[in-house]
């Protein structure tokens, strides 16, 4: 009796799964946008139309003052780039925006590059980019004060804004360029400085030699979650103490040279319970030198997820699988709370010309061209899907980036597993300057609009803003989501600082007013710039950029 019923059910189920989308239903698509002139190796949105890019000071085609540029402002409206004058080498730096809207680029490369003699060492540099309101970047420049420096030299560090609006700066290495971190800056410091010496970190010692670009997250209680190698801690900034959490399962390491990615899942009221998701990376013998590895070394498809509460930590990491193995990829928040997985490769390592069998010059091979979506609220085993996702057609290997834009689509650039720019043909993975966007289906639909918003928003307040809704979405039973987002700083497979906080929200009966409640304090959303998106039934508006908090500068020592 059971058998016919089951097969009928599975027959019905297979029909349901096989049902093709209506031919004119909008889908996800990649769109080629133009040429960035420098490698989009670091990317951060600085205003509604501009993405600030940094590269290595090398032989890039974009010129400024008769030498190759290594900084620029990518214009999302015009799809072109304005070169910026940068003094120090920003290669493999971190960055974030302070509570007063100033972007700080942190650390970088200690050396120059032949053919670009103007370059100064960048490993102790702090480059400031003051708030830029011009949609085309007119008058917006990078400011480098030779007296404003990091306490320690840092190449491949991570920096994220914390509850008082300043930056916590974590790890990196001093000078030596190698496969591993063999010259560690195993310490923390702040910008602006909170003290005159850096704070030693046992975690950064213990996680050597695989702890560059530590994956760090400002938790909603003000402490900081950190992942390096296969290890995790919670760092209490105020007490200067580290609490050791369970290792990632199965020996997976997730920092260069085995760049996995990690993200804090969206925080929701009333509890804002944090969960961390860590995906990809690889298992390898860290006692071997790079020449003993191959570009075909398998990446991992493992994701590990933990709830950062005493019960969640006691339960440990929950393991699930991506549709394919990846290194060098990015995990990004979408305004509806889904996570986008994009870029990267399914075998090999970061860097170039250092494994035994490079492909072209790349230490990695087998570009992963098809993005996937992760739905955090779905059941374990059913969270990932790449159904209907297009192929990008462009490998995005080492030194590539991705960031959500205020328009609601995803900017994708870079890839350069080469020594400087290399546009020679006839080998795999040359320097990539083409910019694409990955456009969600809603980009070609009628969308909700936030018509205006106050420039500054206080914490813990109800706010009403005028909106417009397409008729199809103006329904009492529609699913309304309002997200307050930090779009993060993208480099080396990690969107440092990225954050999505959902806000309780309602839409008035006439569909013309949206009211929402801002996060309770600067621990849930560190004070500083934010982008607000309204999503109705998975159709997201363009984002509006606001200042969360006073907009005052972070505290300084004196
Ligand atoms: C970018 O394109 C716009 C519109 O065509 C043009 O006005 C502007 O001069 C261009 N900027 C650069 C830096 O090419
Ligand atoms: C993490 O890595 C260390 C060093 O390789 C190893 O001793 C430990 O067993 C790993 N942890 C897990 C859970 O695999
Ligand atoms: C790794 O490869 C190099 C040759 O490239 C060799 O000299 C070395 O002994 C090998 N073994 C280890 C453990 O690194
Ligand atoms: C490098 O690859 C070659 C060819 O596959 C192999 O013979 C050699 O043993 C490899 N060397 C190392 C150090 O793994
Ligand atoms: C670019 O890389 C190819 C492949 O390794 C190499 O043959 C060529 O010499 C490189 N060109 C430059 C300018 O470095
Ligand atoms: C990179 O290229 C530069 C300039 O051609 C050269 O001087 C340098 O030795 C190269 N470095 C490596 C690691 O190949
Ligand atoms: C923001 O604060 C930083 C750190 O104190 C300072 O360097 C910068 O000039 C400030 N920016 C503005 C616009 O006040």
Q: Describe the sheet with the most strands.
A: 6 strands, antiparallel
Coarse shape: globular
What is the CATH top level name of the largest domain? Answer: Mainly Beta
Strand order of the largest sheet: 7-6-3-2-37-38
Task: Please state the second-level CATH architecture of the largest domain.
Answer: 7 Propeller
User: Can you tell me the CATH topology of the largest domain?
Assistant: Methylamine Dehydrogenase, Chain H
CATH superfamily of the largest domain: Galactose oxidase/kelch, beta-propeller
- Quick one: how many beta strands? 44
Give the ligands present: 2-acetamido-2-deoxy-beta-D-glucopyranose
The poorly predicted ranges are 1-20
Strand content: 35-45%
Specify the number of helices.
3
- End-to-end C-alpha gap: 81 Å
The rounded Rg comes to 23 Å
- The helix content is under 10%
Structural class call reads mainly beta
**Whole-number tally of structural domains:** 2
| Average pLDDT | 94
Protein name: Glyoxal oxidase
Pfam families: Glyoxal_oxid_N (PF07250), GO-like_E_set (PF09118)
Domain Galactose oxidase-like Early set: 447-548
Keywords: Signal
Write a brief caption for the model.
The protein is mainly beta. It has 3 helices and 44 strands. Helices cover 5% and strands 35% of the residues.
């Amino acid at each position: 009796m059971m058998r016919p019923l089951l097969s009928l059910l599975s027959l019905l189920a297979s029909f349901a799964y096989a049902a093709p989308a209506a031919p004119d239903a909008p889908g996800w698509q990649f769109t080629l946008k133009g040429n960035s002139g420098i490698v989009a190796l670091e990317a951060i949105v600085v205003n509604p139309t501009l993405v600030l890019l940094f590269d290595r000071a090398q032989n890039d085609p974009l010129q400024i003052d008769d030498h190759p540029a290594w900084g620029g402002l990518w214009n999302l409206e015009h799809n072109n780039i304005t070169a910026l004058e940068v003094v120090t080498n920003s290669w493999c730096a971190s960055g974030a925006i302070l509570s007063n809207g100033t972007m700080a680029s942190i650390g970088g490369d200690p050396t120059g590059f032949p053919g670009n003699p103007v370059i100064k060492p960048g490993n102790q540099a702090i480059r400031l980019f003051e708030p830029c309101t011009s949609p085309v970047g007119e008058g917006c420049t990078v400011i480098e004060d030779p007296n404003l420096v990091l306490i320690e030299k840092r190449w491949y560090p991570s920096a994220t804004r914390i509850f008082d609006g300043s930056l916590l700066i974590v790890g990196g290495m001093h000078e030596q360029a190698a496969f591993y971190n063999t010259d560690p800056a195993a310490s923390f410091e702040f910008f602006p400085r909170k003290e005159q010496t850096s704070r030693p970190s046992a975690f950064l010692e213990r996680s050597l030699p695989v702890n560059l670009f530590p994956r760090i997250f400002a938790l909603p209680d003000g402490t900081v979650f950190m992942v390096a190698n296969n290890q995790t801690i919670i760092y209490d900034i105020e007490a200067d103490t580290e609490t050791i959490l369970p290792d990632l399962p199965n020996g997976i390491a997730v920092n260069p040279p085995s760049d996995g990615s990690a993200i804090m899942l969206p925080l929701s009221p009333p509890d804002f319970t944090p969960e961390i998701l860590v995906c990809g990376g690889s298992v390898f013998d860290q006692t071997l030198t790079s020449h003993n590895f191959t570009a075909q070394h398998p990446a991992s498809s493992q994701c590990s997820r933990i709830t950062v509460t005493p019960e969640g930590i006691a339960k440990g990491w929950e393991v699930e699988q991506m549709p394919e193995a990846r290194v060098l990829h990015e995990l990004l928040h979408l305004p509806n709370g889904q996570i986008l997985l994009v870029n990267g490769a399914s075998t090999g390592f970061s860097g170039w010309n250092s494994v035994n069998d490079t492909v072209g010059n790349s230490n990695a091979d087998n570009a992963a061209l098809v993005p996937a979506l992760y739905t955090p609220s779905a059941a374990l085993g059913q969270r990932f899907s790449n159904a209907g996702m297009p192929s990008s057609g462009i490998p995005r290997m080492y030194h590539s980036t991705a960031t959500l834009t205020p328009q609601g689509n995803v900017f994708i650039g870079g890839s350069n597993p080469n020594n400087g720019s290399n546009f020679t043909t006839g080998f795999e993975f040359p320097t990539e300057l083409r910019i694409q966007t990955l456009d969600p289906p809603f980009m070609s639909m009628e969308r909700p609009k936030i018509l205006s918003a106050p420039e500054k928003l206080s914490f813990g307040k109800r706010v009403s803003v005028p909106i417009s809704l397409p008729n199809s979405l103006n329904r009492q039973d529609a699913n309304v989501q309002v997200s307050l987002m930090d779009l993060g700083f993208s480099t080396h497979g990690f969107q440092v600082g990225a954050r999505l906080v959902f806000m309780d929200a309602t839409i008035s009966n006439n569909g013309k007013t949206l009211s929402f409640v801002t996060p309770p304090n600067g621990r849930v959303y560190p004070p500083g710039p934010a982008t607000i998106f309204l999503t109705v039934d998975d159709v997201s508006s363009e984002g509006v950029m606001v200042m969360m908090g006073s907009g005052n500068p972070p505290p300084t020592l004196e």
